[in-house]
């Protein structure tokens, strides 16, 4: 709150008396109004001080300040300058001319971005653009070569990914409420105007500057008007300022600031009492409301730290993807790779680099965190702000209602010169209720008051505790009422001692007086009861009550009372004095007419009864919460409108101050404050009166203290405090609840409003709302903010680690010519399928135990993605995962007969499992035995093997001339005896035998030279004329006679083996990601400390990625679209040792870095500095 602890309940609707909820555009107007008023005040102060505004300030002033002169001049001068008459108004001709010149009295509708624009923006972030380019390239590739439908499938999948991600993010971020609502409801349809010498009712839209209008109770002010006649007019300015309490208007100028003067009534406000006559000075968009509406509509949102971090991450990853894509595009062209193949590789590189599911993961994480914070009574209005709170280094907290209970409570009572305690959450009562003096004090507390419990609340909630009941009355009276009610029911006492007359409290007298019936008297006499500032009450007392009896008050008595008063006030308590006098029943009989304006009854010579001291006590959880903040490296600064003594007292109680201030040290040493060395003082209390005189060096000195309290501050000074904290590179969170606090809330890195005591304007300006007004909820918010940053780091570390095993297959293919170990489609299956739920599940991970023991992250150094995180994900875990993938890939080829040594260069010509008919070839390999390990391989192709050329040039001995080399022309065929029928195929078998000197590993036969018999698996078949029939190619029968032999590989066999190897590589990534997601559960603690299976969603994620992988492998109709093949169970096993290696490595690394942090181990410290991500 801007002021002290006086809490006046929000005003209500003029008709119903209930609270009126401000609409969205009213709240936005109020926020801008408050900021504009603050700017004008600041500019006027500078002008008075002779300070020139900076160029930027001058420009802003031209745009934003409300330049008005009409409120400063006399009525006569106003009439002269506006050429109008208060008595007669404008002439009809003047009105017509001005209406044509200025236009109608209407507000222009604000411009808002349409929903389709917001949706379109989802398609132009870097990730989306990269995937869109990749999709277009895929479609181009398919258009150039329709024999490869995979390009079409890939293009469709990438398009779906982009569209689904964009729609998901759009619907998560889209807010149904409009930026500004229609303003038509602010314009009353009719107004009474004096025009041409007569009064008439006209359309409000026809009003012009100079029109004279009449305003009465219930009217909505149709334009900005300068009041020239006034009969107790009060206006409800809540639509503009947010202040629901009716504001008195006058004819005289009360402030140079046009927004603060009381002789102006503004467009859109409501007359709730009295009547007035005013001259129109502004209409339509030129009204204060219209100008502020324009500013509100044009205001830009500031990017949060998380938005900046994510944008930076997207730029980095996109740059890496584009750079790698271009590099390998160039390498491909240099190597002579055809354009379409090169294009597909570039697409693969881009897709492998881009974590397609990251943005969806971030959105889900933020939404989840917001829901989690709502359970902790923190309402998040802007999701990304959660992380900003986690980065907070300084909290500028209001006192009332945030650090304290916002509940004035009687904590001490003084009777018979003795200070007694009352029962509170932290102390027991020491007063004696049966004491005669205390009974009199209790009686005065009950009857000298006007506060009452809200009857509606009592009827609806009869069982509500006394402390929680709603009270109609100010905060101090509410505290007294609740204190008295706990001792004895107040209303029956008031009924027996009814008020006859009352002098309300006012700032001049500083006391309240009631004349009450006295139920203790049998003669029906009355009693004068007085309550107010102790010094004012004492001045009117001549006697004092001691043990129930009155005696003359001595100077010593007054000195003792003042000592007690000083003791209470030093504790920050608000003290009220109570006195009474019994009136003579004969002089003041029943029915006597008391004059409260000119009192006709005694107000001097009263009997002093005692004191009651009130305090807004700290919330029980706040001291420990502030200690938690301090241990987390977060400085808590109290910024309050209260008296410095009160602020300091509360600050000590809640641990904001726990060391002496310079004043304390000076008092203790008996020296002047100026003699205390400021560098030795850790705590400081700065009153608002000193703030305006502080220069930059002074601010550096003040904010250099560890423990800081600002007291008696204005809303403008709160803004200055925030700005200076930010100048020192602090991340500032501001908590406040007042109408005029929106400038500070908006300026802060994160504004936090109070949900209960906060004004609607402060809630609208804030990024977060504390639903229970409890500072401890901010601590929960800080922890959640740090947790979300931690968990996003973990999710990114997990997601990025699979980039290396996704990218390296493309690199290996391009650099070594091995058959491509992983396809682009399977990469998408990882990024959008198997990795998605585990990545999201890390958002559900609970905080590590040290999260609130760390200093706030340095936004300039501790980024979302750092060098250490890249090193961890790519060089430590990623490379290990890639090694697992290549291991399994090689094992599969080995198990199917192609040794690892034969893979380099195997696909250089793009023959292996080629899709293009013209590029398909037979592959033959040399083995030491059937089904054994191959030692050599070659393509049946003249270009690939120049030794084949002679066989295509002519017959070579018993081998006929060969004319076919393309796989499709060499299909074996089969007769009734399973003999191949294709002569070119049969001739190829003899050619391969001639080149390798080996017989087939499969069964073969031929007719004997005399044609009388069949030779089976006889080498003689190759030395005689005539064909050799490789029957094993059709029956799969093995040649049992073979030693060293050769094996033929059809295009289908090549494809099956490659798809199995690619499938095994894909499954290996899933397996090593098991270990990866587990080690990413913590950044510092051991997994044994955090718990292996403490995260249920993560457990489900592990199960989901495993089942999805198995589904893609073993469901037949899924195999072809995704390019997978069923795996032998044995091929799931080779990656498991790498799972153990990853887990063991990371546990050892974390153990050593913990040793470094806790025990100073040098290697551990080095590890912490270089691997703690």
TrEMBL record:
A GO MF label: ATP binding
Membrane topology qualifier: Multi-pass membrane protein
Location relative to the cell: Cell membrane
Region (Disordered): 1-57
InterPro entries: ATPase_P-typ_cation-transptr_C, ATPase_P-typ_cation-transptr_N, ATPase_P-typ_cyto_dom_N, ATPase_P-typ_P_site, ATPase_P-typ_TM_dom_sf, ATPase_P-typ_transduc_dom_A_sf, ATPase_P-type_domA, Cation_transp_ATPase_P-type
GO cellular component labels: plasma membrane
SMART domains: Cation_ATPase_N
Cross-referenced SUPFAM superfamilies: Calcium ATPase, transduction domain A, Calcium ATPase, transmembrane domain M, HAD-like, Metal cation-transporting ATPase, ATP-binding domain N
Annotated transmembrane regions: 115-140, 152-171, 313-334, 340-366, 872-892
Pfam family, one: Cation_ATPase_N
Taxonomic superkingdom: Eukaryota
Major location category of this protein: membrane
GO terms for biological process, alphabetical: intracellular potassium ion homeostasis; intracellular sodium ion homeostasis; potassium ion import across plasma membrane; proton transmembrane transport; sodium ion export across plasma membrane
Record keywords: ATP-binding, Cell membrane, Ion transport, Membrane, Nucleotide-binding, Phosphoprotein, Potassium, Potassium transport, Translocase, Transmembrane, Transmembrane helix, Transport
Keyword Magnesium among UniProt keywords: no
Gene3D superfamilies linked: Calcium-transporting ATPase, cytoplasmic domain N (3.40.1110.10), Calcium-transporting ATPase, cytoplasmic transduction domain A (2.70.150.10), Calcium-transporting ATPase, transmembrane domain (1.20.1110.10), HAD superfamily/HAD-like (3.40.50.1000)
Residue ranges of domain Cation-transporting P-type ATPase N-terminal in the record: 69-143
Annotated family: Belongs to the cation transport ATPase (P-type) (TC 3.A.3) family. Type IIC subfamily.
NCBIfam families: ATPase-IIC_X-K (TIGR01106), ATPase_P-type (TIGR01494)
UniProt name for this protein: Cation-transporting P-type ATPase N-terminal domain-containing protein
Originating species: Porphyra umbilicalis
